């Protein structure tokens, strides 16, 4: 297959990769994985995902987690409960916490500054939190710019941003599944501004909610272009839509399509060092196979996770299970830090 003039895959060329037999595609992605990450390490981080509120004005059709103000089971976690969960996570070896929640109209910049400072004053932990939709929401209700929002949050203790809220970065499709959510340009804009102020981020993609494969490739091209510009993404994480309890409904993408998308992502994203396998949505056995389809990282142990769980994902794993999965393949299991700059422990 001939590549474009830059020696990399165009969208049309990448779409042809989906037509290959699955073993052939997997082998191509595996070769790229070893070229970019020649060490036999498979990494992961120990963390806890704390959903500080389920109140959300976005009301995305693919989400089963959100609640409206006044709903019986709507909540905002108090500081004491958040501190207890962080303390428990650190006791289990966590080095990272992820605070993510709905777009709550009652929580402005001051709330987050106070919470971040309080956490940092009590715990030595990396705060990898607040996705781009949350950042835009905080900026809007606080009547400040994205740059000021990110700068103030960073000063208060925010260390890096997760790539949540991306779904598919194609506005035509976003209008169908999440019309109240930020547009693709806003998601990219938050990430670019974060990178400019020295804050690293991850990039994600939720697929299988009815989009076309071309929509997915538009998404990948957008993040590849930004990575060319800033170099601020540490990893890419593709995961599959979970339909249970959602307004959107539909069926779940199977393992074969997941592995195809993972492999194409590894081949196309030539400027991303790390690709994560999503064991939370695919299970441990498929995650193990994914390590031969381009993935070199298993994400996190997810001591706690509620958003995807609400939509039907039931897979759980502790540290020793992830280590066993990796070692069973003759690979080296390594606990890493959030930004992939330090190996904390080799198992």
Walk me through this protein's architecture.
The chain has helices at residues 11-17, 22-36, 79-91, 109-122, 132-142, 146-156, 171-177, 184-196, 213-230, 255-268, 279-282, 284-290, 307-310, 319-327; strands at residues 41-45, 47-50, 96-99, 126-127, 201-207, 233-240, 274-275, 297-300, 332-336, 343-346. The protein is an alpha/beta fold. The chain has a single domain, classed as Aldolase class I (TIM Barrel, Alpha-Beta Barrel), CATH 3.20.20.70. The strands form 3 sheets. Strands 8-1-9-10 form a 4-stranded mixed sheet. Strands 2-3-4 form a 3-stranded parallel sheet, with helices on one face. The chain has a 3-stranded parallel sheet with strand order 5-6-7. Helix 5 (132-142) crosses helix 6. The longest helix has 18 residues, at 213-230. The protein is globular. It starts with 10 loop residues before the first helix and ends with a strand. The model is unreliable at 305-315 (pLDDT under 50).
DSSP strand count:
10
Alpha-carbon Rg, integer: 19 Å
Q: Give the CA-CA distance, first to last residue.
A: 40 Å
Number of domains: 1
Helix proportion: 40-55%
The residue-averaged pLDDT reads: 90
The stretches of 5 or more residues where confidence is low (pLDDT under 50) are: 305-315
Structural class: alpha/beta
- Widest sheet: strand order? 8-1-9-10
How would you sum up the global shape? globular
Strand percentage:
5-15%
Q: State the CATH superfamily name.
A: Aldolase class I
CATH topology: TIM Barrel
CATH architectural category = Alpha-Beta Barrel
CATH class: Alpha Beta
Total helical elements: 14
Largest sheet: 4 strands, mixed
Oligomeric state of the chains in view: single chain
> Secondary-structure element sequence?
HHEEHEHEHHHHEHEHEHHEHHEE
């Amino acid at each position: 297959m001939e590549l474009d003039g830059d020696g990399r895959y165009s969208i049309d060329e990448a779409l042809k990769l989906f037509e290959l037999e699955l073993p052939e595609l997997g082998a191509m992605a595996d070769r790229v994985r070893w070229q970019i990450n020649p060490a036999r390490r498979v990494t992961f981080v120990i963390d806890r995902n704390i959903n500080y509120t389920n109140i959300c004005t976005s009301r995305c059709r693919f989400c089963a987690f959100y609640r409206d103000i006044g709903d019986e089971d709507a909540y905002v976690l108090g500081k004491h409960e958040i501190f207890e969960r962080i303390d428990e996570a650190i006791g289990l070896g966590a080095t990272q916490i992820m605070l993510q929640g709905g777009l709550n109209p009652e929580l402005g910049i001051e709330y987050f500054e106070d919470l971040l400072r309080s956490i940092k004053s009590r715990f030595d932990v990396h705060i990898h939190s607040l996705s781009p939709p949350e950042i835009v929401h905080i900026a809007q209700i606080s009547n400040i710019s994205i740059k000021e929002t990110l700068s103030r949050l960073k000063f208060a203790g925010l260390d890096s941003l997760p790539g949540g809220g991306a779904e598919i970065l194609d506005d035509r499709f976003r209008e169908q599944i999440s019309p109240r959510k930020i547009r693709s340009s806003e998601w990219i804009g938050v990430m670019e501004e974060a990178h400019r102020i020295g804050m690293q981020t991850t990039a994600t993609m939720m697929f299988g909610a009815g989009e076309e494969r071309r929509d997915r490739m538009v998404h990948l091209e957008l993040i590849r272009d930004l990575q060319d510009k800033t170099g601020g993404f540490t990893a890419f994480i593709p995961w599959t839509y979970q339909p249970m309890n959602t307004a959107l409904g539909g069926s779940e993408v199977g393992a074969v399509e997941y592995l195809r998308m993972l492999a194409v992502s590894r081949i196309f994203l030539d400027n991303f060092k790390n690709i994560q396998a999503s064991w939370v949505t695919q299970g441990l056995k498929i995650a193990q196979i994914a390590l031969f389809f381009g993935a070199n990282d298993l994400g996190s142990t997810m001591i706690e996770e509620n958003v995807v769980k609400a939509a039907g994902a039931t897979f759980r794993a502790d540290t020793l299970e992830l280590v066993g999965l990796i070692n069973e393949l003759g690979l080296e299991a390594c606990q890493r830090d959030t930004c992939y700059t330090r190996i904390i422990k080799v198992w």
